[in-house]
Specification:
Radius of gyration: 21 Å
CATH superfamily of the largest domain: Metal-dependent hydrolases
Largest sheet: 9 strands, mixed
Structural class: alpha/beta
CATH topology of the largest domain: TIM Barrel
Strand content: 15-25%
CATH class of the largest domain: Alpha Beta
Number of helices: 14
């Protein structure tokens, strides 16, 4: 690519890049926050220059499922600490989930989060609207508010009022609006009926209670109602082989997310090793299910990898099962854990880029992000593919102060985070102040603030 000018606000020189043209050596120029040149830029110079020799430059990693706990339970996490962990892990943009207190179910609660975010979130961001049986009719205009990533539905036991348990409730949600709806699929009736499967003091029984059938049943129901309503859905954190088979036959209406922990850990070993810290919903399952998740990823059924970052304090997680909460931190470890899977041959680096930038761009119709191409935001994740190191609790910037990957021997490390042409992290050091902005979506470019 021939540059129109040889001066840029930011010039990244001498690195290997991975984008739509494959994996190759190139320089990148950024002006006014946008990518303006890619190629051999020769004698070009920048107000800010980064020597990327020996590093690989990826399109900015997007984590499309995080829980930052603000407002309501900021002792676990808040918008500042969560995004600080994100940029230290090489993540340039996040979609934050609605199960806060109060839940994000109205236009005012969305605007409140956007107000809280300004000047405090380190990376760019968007917020989900949580669906309820009571707000279904308003979802069609609320999903188009600026800074909203879409509607999120919880079909199984969730926080507060964020529960859409019946088929008619789900259909009513899906028939109001047009953007893709993110779905947490666990069958609430089955979970209620099986509560006796929880064994006091035995966290491994969590996977017996929230069994594979509860996931399969809910996913089947969600797909049926999506077809009935003519609505696209995005199935969050899939965990079972049956779900992958169902979704392989439903790509016309459904996209698919998996999480690093479901690809990396397996039961019962993880419960024996880290106990209640391994609890999350849906749960970590056995090797057979994990192997089929990998099959779905390798054959293209899976569209996106998110972290499902859902922190709780060490003290909360230490409570005996079933009194210990479900959820674990993950936004900071997403990149190094998945780079390790690349190093060990389970997926290519190009496929990882597809899952963490191009995939979210396609699924959610991002306007400015998800591609390393001219005219897109200058968002980059710089990684050292050869770095061998050990992830520890001490590395975690989350307010929760721990990671389920403590002791994980990683190959590959995020060493730089660039957002809209601004260096925000390099070699573990933060630069400047939080300047994250709301993400723009193709489907909300003409968004209205009122119905």
């Amino acid at each position: 690519m021939i540059a129109f000018d040889n001066k840029f606000d930011l010039l990244i020189k001498g690195g290997e890049i991975v984008n739509h043209a494959g994996r190759h050596m190139a320089d990148i120029g950024v002006t006014d926050g946008k990518i303006t040149a890619i190629g051999d830029l020769g004698d070009a110079f920048g107000d800010e220059e980064i020597d990327a020799k020996g590093l690989t430059v990826l399109p900015g990693v997007i984590d499309s499922q995080v829980h930052f706990r603000e407002p309501g339970t900021e002792h676990k996490e808040d918008l500042e600490s969560g995004t600080r962990a994100a940029i230290l892990g090489g993540v340039t943009a996040v979609f934050e989930m609605p199960n806060t207190d109060p839940a994000t179910t109205t236009a005012e609660t969305v605007k409140d989060k956007l107000r809280r975010a300004k000047g405090r979130m380190w990376c760019d961001h968007a917020f989900y609207i949580g669906a309820t049986p009571d707000n279904a009719r308003a979802l069609g205009w609320m999903e188009r508010l600026p800074g909203v990533s879409g509607v999120q539905v919880s079909m199984g036991a969730s926080t507060g009022d964020l529960l859409v348990p019946t088929d008619e409730d789900l259909y009513n949600v899906l028939r109001h609006g047009s953007r893709r709806v993110a779905v947490h699929a666990e069958d609430n009736a089955r979970l209620t009926d099986r509560m006796d499967a929880r064994l006091a003091g035995d966290p491994s029984s969590h996977a017996d209670w929230r069994d594979a059938e509860s996931a399969r049943l809910a996913t089947e129901r969600a797909l049926h109602q999506a077809r009935r309503a003519g609505r696209r859905v995005h199935m969050l954190h899939m965990t079972t082989g049956d779900e992958i088979q169902l979704l392989a036959q439903s790509k016309d209406i459904a996209t698919v997310e998996v999480l690093p922990q479901h690809l990396t850990f397996s039961a019962p070993e993880i419960y024996e090793r880290i106990g209640t810290r391994a609890l999350q919903n849906p749960p970590i399952r056995d090797d057979l299910h994990r192997d089929i998740l990998w099959y779905g990823l390798q054959t293209g059924v899976v569209d996106v990898i998110g972290s499902g970052h859902a922190p709780h304090t060490v003290e909360e997680k230490a409570k005996a099962y079933p009194n210990s909460p479900s959820g674990m931190p993950g936004v900071q470890t997403l990149v190094p854990v998945m780079l390790t899977h690349v190093a060990e041959g389970r997926l290519s680096l190009e496929r990882l880029v597809d899952l963490t930038s191009a995939g979210p761009q396609r699924v959610f119709n991002l306007r400015d992000k998800g591609r390393m191409a001219l005219g897109y935001d200058g968002d980059f994740t710089l990684v050292d593919l050869k770095a061998q190191w050990t992830i520890t609790d001490d590395w975690s910037a989350s307010r929760s102060g721990w990671t389920p990957f403590d002791g994980f021997k990683a190959t590959g490390k995020p060493v730089g985070t660039i957002i809209r042409g601004a260096k925000v992290m390099m070699d573990g050091e933060l630069f400047g102040a939080p300047t994250g902005k709301p993400i723009r979506f193709q489907e909300t470019l003409s968004a209205k603030l009122e119905p």
